[in-house]
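As a warm-up, study this chain.
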Amino acid sequence: MEEKQKTTGEKRREALLYQQKNGYDCLSPADESAMRAYSEDYKKFLDSSMTEREAVDTAISLAEARGFKPLVRGMELRPGDKVYRSNRGKAVMLAVVGSQPLDQGAKIGAAHIDSPRLDLKPSPLYEDAELAFLKTHYYGGIRKYQWVTIPLELHGVVALKDGSVVKVAIGSAAGDPLFTIDDLLPHLGAEQSKKPLGEAIPGENLNILVGSRPFQDDEGDQRVKLAIMDILNQKYGIVEEDFISAELSVVPAFHARTSALTALSSALMAMMTGCAPMPLWLRCWIWRRRRPGPPYACWQTRKRSDQRASRGCSLRPLTPLCPTCATRKRCP
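Now compare it with the structure written out below.
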C-alpha cells in the first residue's frame, strides 16, 4: 500500500510545534526497571526518616557506606575526596571535591528535611476523665482535620540531667503501641460538621491519647498519668521534668507506598554515587530546615553547557517522573 505523503503543513507542524508525550512512553524496559529499584530504596529512606534527626542519621549511614568520611576542620582535601558534616544532628552537608578552582564555579543541591508534624509542649502529659493525654502544638502548614483518628507514632530525643541524650521511637517497631487523637462520633458531630474545614478541629484539641490504665497499688490522684510515666521511666529512664529538655514529635504511623505516579528526589543518590560529572571545584548536598512540607530536593547548577553528559548516568531513567524533564528535556 502506497504511503501517504505528508503535506507541507504537516511537515511544518512536526518541525515547529511541540508534541507532548507521556513520560512512560520514553522509557525502555531497563529504564523502568532502574526507576522501580530506585523508588523502592526511596521508600525505605522515607520510612526510616520520620524527623530531621532521623533523616540525618539515615543520610550519614548511606553516605558512609559509599565512602564518605566525616569532615574534620583543617584536614587535607584532594580531588575526589568525599566528606560530610553534621550540624548538631538536624542538618547535614555532603561534599565531593572537584578538580578545578572554586572561581570556576560549584554545583550545589539543597533540600529541606523538615515536614508538618505535631511537637510535644514542654509540659505535655496530663490526665482528664481518667485518660492520659499529651499536649501538642503543630509545626508547619498542616490540615488539622487530617490528623484525628489516624494511627500516630512518637519520635525524638530527650536530654537527661546527666547530659546524656536518649532516642525515643514508639510505634515504628513491630508490636509497639500506636497513638491517636480522638474525635466526635458522627451522631454527636452535627454542629462540628457545619464548620469550615479550618475551624472544625481547633489546634488546641490536637492532644494525643496515650493511655487509660491506672497505676496499681496507689490511692492518689492522676493514677493514669503516673502509669504512663512509670512505663516511660522503665523504658527510657526519664522523669516528667525531662520533657522540658526533650524534642519529641508525633508523626503519622504510615509506611511509604507506591501511588499512581510519584515524583522522587534523586539529588542525594546522585551525590553519593557520583552520577553527575565533577569538572568544578566542589559539589555539595545540603539538608537544612526551611519551609514546612514533605521532603523534596532540587538540583541546580550555574554551568549547564558541559553538564549534559550526565544524561548517561544510572539515575537518568528517573527524569520521566518530572513532567518538565520528560517533555522539555531541561535536566542538567
